[in-house]
């Protein structure tokens, strides 16, 4: 029984590492929402990410750390300590994102219901 438990633990760790390697890269979404263009760009690196959102008159971005649990990618933007940066037009109010890993080429933003494709 102990060996079986250790096997499952090792199996999940290996699967987790394989998934992490496949999601590295740049993803993009371009579309229209309420008559205005909408664009998301996501860059996933080994231990960090950068995400930006561009709409008609706004451009926001943030950087932070990510983690994968099962088939979901969790993004958490770094905390901003400078008040003037938080008040600037480039500050991204939304600081946490959940993306479903559809494949190694596609991620779906769960709350936005849009698919980002790998470049």
SSE layout:
Layout: H1 2-23, E1 25-33, E2 36-44, E3 49-54, E4 59-69, E5 72-77, H2 83-87, E6 96-101, E7 106-109, E8 114-118
Antiparallel strand pairs: 1-2, 1-8, 2-3, 3-4, 4-5, 5-6, 6-7, 7-8
- With strands numbered from the N-terminus, the spatial order across the biggest sheet is 1-2-3-4-5-6-7-8
Q: How many strand units?
A: 8
From the structure provided, what is the oligomeric state, counting identical versus distinct chains? single chain
Radius of gyration: 17 Å
Q: How many helices?
A: 2
What does this protein structure show overall?
With 119 residues, this protein is an alpha+beta fold. 23% of the residues lie in helices and 47% in strands. The chain has an 8-stranded antiparallel beta barrel with strand order 1-2-3-4-5-6-7-8.
Defining key terms:
119 residues; alpha+beta; 2 helices; 47% strand; globular
